[in-house]
UniProtKB/TrEMBL annotation:
Transmembrane segments: none
MF-aspect GO terms: glycosyltransferase activity
InterPro entries tied to this protein: Glyco_trans_1 (IPR001296), Glyco_trans_4-like_N (IPR028098), Glycosyltransferase_grp1 (IPR050194)
Source species of the chain: Effusibacillus lacus
Keyword Transferase tagged: yes
Keyword Signal among UniProt keywords: no
Pfam family, one: Glycos_transf_1
Taxon lineage: Bacteria, Bacillati, Bacillota, Bacilli, Bacillales
Keyword list, A-Z: Transferase
Name of the protein: Group 1 glycosyl transferase
Entry superkingdom: Bacteria
Domain Glycosyl transferase family intervals: 216-377
Length: 416
């Protein structure tokens, strides 16, 4: 079977969607399927297929669309916000680029976000099934980031429509958590019957190899290491973590916190770190290629998200056997059981986050037990085989004419 994996986002990138796409591609190819990827190039100036090198310069597609769309907006819809115009033009451009690359040769299209789902649904053949995986809720993220300041605004109504049409322009839409399914159904009127929950899986063997690789980072012998791998953006809640760490420093100073990742809040968070006198305890490490090896050296994993769906970082921390301290944002409580596989505090509550961090630092027995429980849970729950079985079942539902050809191929189960 010839399958297209498509996303509006650029690939590769540091984050869960990139991991998901490349893992899915590898596993499908093991079964004998031909798999292409269609995405933005990391420079955002090309649409391309990273697996075969095909590309087209984005301005060739976007410039004429921009000219026509802006003329239309100025003539008929001058009141429309420039931000909305930009999003509309981006989707039309991605749609046109997909048509240029050609979609007829694919037996199945699997999109990875709202934009690519709606775009490819409009230009593909009616005979080609399209499965979507929606990895999060952009509309509510825009509220947290203050890109949208009011739910009474036109931008909010626009992104709400994006959530609806991006989630329904498919034969079946997969989401990783019940939280996201309920949010899309309740807040954006997506029929629950159209959504199927398929939690993520991970290549555990490959992760262990990376975890045991060497890293140049050394750990002081007298320090407990807290690690927070997350983009430095508002929705990840770093400011609340820093406030919690300031309280922790008042009680003990035998710890370091590694902030792994980068983003537009870095300077602001660095200033907050200095104002809280945490510069000797909090280390901004930027984007790293050795995160699993750094995780191995850590004692505690912390994620203070204000909104999150099914973070890969939590999965990896559990498989690594780390004590997990998280917020109750989004789908995280579906991944962590309080006081059994980790400690959970309400999102945005620095005081309760501080208390949980203090507990796992000062109680060696609790920290070890949480880590052991998390690893047992993670090794079973995040099996790549389980995720692939669920995805293949959905593929089979929409490709009945191809079932006899053996969608599952000669798949070999992962051994841990």
């Amino acid at each position: 079977m010839k399958i297209l994996l498509a996303t509006y986002w650029y690939l590769p990138h540091v984050g869960g969607v990139s991991t998901y796409v490349y893992t899915l591609k590898r596993e499908l190819e093991k079964m004998g399927h031909e798999v292409d990827i269609f995405a933005h190039h990391p420079d955002m100036q090309k649409y391309y297929m990273p697996n075969n090198g095909r590309y087209i310069d984005k301005p060739k597609i976007k410039d004429p669309i921009y000219e026509k769309m802006m003329t239309y907006y100025e003539q008929y819809l001058p009141q429309v916000d420039p931000w909305i115009r930009w999003r509309d033009i981006e989707r039309y451009s991605f749609e046109a680029a997909a048509a240029v690359f050609g979609l007829k040769k694919y037996d199945l299209i699997h999109t990875q976000d709202l934009v690519s789902t709606r775009a490819l649904w409009r230009v593909k053949s009616n005979d080609t099934p399209l499965i979507a995986t929606i990895h999060g809720c952009l509309a509510t993220e825009f509220i947290y980031s203050r890109e949208i300041k009011s739910k009474n605004s036109l931008p909010w109504h626009y992104v709400s429509a994006e959530e609806y049409y991006g989630s329904t322009s498919s034969n079946i839409t997969m989401v990783p958590t019940h939280w996201l399914k309920n949010l899309l159904s309740t807040d954006f009127n997506v029929p629950g019957s159209h959504l199927t929950v398929v939690p993520y899986g991970m290549d555990i063997n490959a992760f262990f190899k990376k975890m045991n690789a060497k890293t140049a980072v050394n750990v002081p012998p007298d320090k407990k290491i807290l690690v927070c791998p997350a983009r430095l953006v508002p929705v990840k809640g770093h400011k609340h973590l820093l406030n919690a760490l300031a309280k922790l420093k008042e009680e003990r100073d035998d710890w370091l916190c590694w902030l792994i990742g980068d983003g537009r809040l870095r300077r602001k968070l660095e200033k907050q770190t200095i104002s809280l006198n945490l510069q000797d305890h909090v280390i901004f490490m930027g984007n790293r290629q050795d995160v699993p090896a750094l995780l191995k050296q850590a004692d505690i994993f912390v994620l203070p998200s204000l909104q999150d769906n099914h973070p890969f970082s939590v999965m990896e921390a559990q498989v690594a056997g780390k004590a997990v301290v998280v917020s109750d944002a989004g789908g995280i409580p579906e991944m962590v059981t309080h006081k059994i596989t980790g400690l959970i505090s309400p999102a945005g509550e620095s005081e309760l986050l501080f208390q949980n961090l203090k507990r796992v630092i000062e109680n060696d027995s609790l920290r070890c037990q949480l880590g052991e429980n998390a690893q047992q849970w993670g090794m079973l729950q995040w099996s790549l085989d389980t995720m692939m079985e669920r995805i293949l079942t959905i593929y089979e539902k929409v490709t009945p004419n191809l079932r006899k050809g053996g969608i599952r191929g000669g798949r070999k189960k992962q051994t841990n």
